[in-house]
TrEMBL record:
Keyword annotations of the record: Cytoplasm, Metal-binding, NAD, Transferase, Zinc
Binding-site list for substrate: 53, 56
GO CC term, one of those recorded: cytoplasm
Protein's UniProt keywords contain Amino-acid biosynthesis: no
Stated role: NAD-dependent lysine deacetylase and desuccinylase that specifically removes acetyl and succinyl groups on target proteins. Modulates the activities of several proteins which are inactive in their acylated form.
Pfam families for this protein: SIR2
Main localization (coarse): cytoplasm
Taxonomic classification: Bacteria, Bacillati, Actinomycetota, Actinomycetes, Mycobacteriales
Source organism (scientific name): Mycolicibacterium hodleri
Keyword Iron attributed: no
Record-given protein name: NAD-dependent protein deacylase
Cofactor note: Binds 1 zinc ion per subunit.
Catalytic activity: N(6)-acetyl-L-lysyl-[protein] + NAD(+) + H2O = 2''-O-acetyl-ADP-D-ribose + nicotinamide + L-lysyl-[protein]; N(6)-succinyl-L-lysyl-[protein] + NAD(+) + H2O = 2''-O-succinyl-ADP-D-ribose + nicotinamide + L-lysyl-[protein]
Length: 237
């Protein structure tokens, strides 16, 4: 059986990683989302954007995968599992998932914003979040940026193509921990539904997708995912 997981920030919430839109703890609560996660925000305040991503990069060293990540990784034992994630963390991989496609890039790779050269240089330590850090400069005079996809930027073609294929050929799609408002990622569950593929949503809150999916479970990822495959026959009838 082919299972395609479509995960968002809620997947990492129970690892202690703040989500984007949960206002009291969300990453956006402290910053203007457009300013900090868009290419013109980068052009205007690279030192603010760089500090935010550096902090998120370092924060990943102090968190670990949760039962939800581990459940998805364990599904490899009986199913052909593909993970399409909007997350830029590496928790799916650290839990053991293999076929993981990052639609919005990664906190763990960096490049020059002018010549595109990959940057492998040292990163300044950041024990506590600070408001501004000057990004390193490339030999060509460009600034080093995180390899993430900002608003208004194209998604990586390979990740997108693999994700569309993983959704189109799935027997079931499991959408977990996403507010389903950021496109084109949010279009993937719609693609599955249009092709008659059952879609299960796992989210403690309602989302714009909730009344369109086959089943919407008001549960958290770490509680719902461990037993979910066994529940599929009953859930899908
Ligand atoms: C593109 C960077 C086209 C990485 C992010 C106007 C101007 C410009 C663009 C647009 C525009 N209008 C529309 C667009 C398109 C835009 C878009 O969709 N905007 C939205 C806001 C309407 N999309 C884009 O710009 C994309 N690019 O379209 O390019 C193009 C075409 C041609 C030429 C050039 C370009 C790029 C989109 C990517 C943006 N990058 N981040 C980073 O910093 O991480 S977006 C940001 O939101 C993150 O990447 C995140 O992945 C994404 C989605 O958020 P979620 O993962 O859903 O997280 P959220 O907090 O929202 O929700 C968490 C959910 O979990 C909640 O539902 C909560 O209930 C639940 N939850 C909480 N706890 C748990 C839980 N669930 C389970 N268990 C729990 N324990
Ligand atoms: Zn350069």
């Amino acid at each position: 059986m082919r299972v395609t997981v479509l995960s968002g920030a809620g997947m990492s919430a129970e690892s202690g990683v703040p989500t984007f839109r949960d206002v009291e703890t969300g990453l956006w609560a402290k910053v203007d989302p457009y300013e900090i996660s868009s290419s013109d925000g980068w052009r205007r305040h690279p030192e603010k954007v760089w500090a935010w991503y550096l902090w998120r990069h370092y924060m990943m060293k102090s968190v670990a995968p949760n039962d939800g990540h581990r459940a998805v990784a364990a599904w490899h034992d009986g199913a052909d599992v593909h993970v399409v994630t909007q997350n830029v963390d590496d928790l799916h991989e650290r839990a053991g998932s293999r076929q993981v496609y990052h639609l919005h890039g990664s906190l763990f790779s960096f490049r020059c914003d002018r010549c595109g050269l990959a940057y492998h240089g040292a990163l300044p330590a950041m024990p506590e979040p600070v408001d501004t850090v000057e990004p390193p400069m490339c030999a060509c005079g460009g600034l080093i940026r995180p390899d993430v996809v900002w608003f208004g930027e194209q998604l990586p073609t390979a990740a997108w193509d693999r994700s569309v294929e993983a959704v189109s050929r799935a027997d079931v799609a499991i959408v977990v921990g996403t507010s389903s408002i950021v496109y084109p990622a949010a279009g993937l569950p719609e693609l599955a539904l249009a092709e008659g593929i059952p879609v299960i949503e796992v989210n403690p809150e309602e989302t714009p997708l909730s009344d369109r999916v086959t089943v919407s479970l008001r549960e958290t990822s770490a509680t719902a995912l461990p037993g979910l495959l066994q529940r599929l026959p009953a859930l899908l009838g």
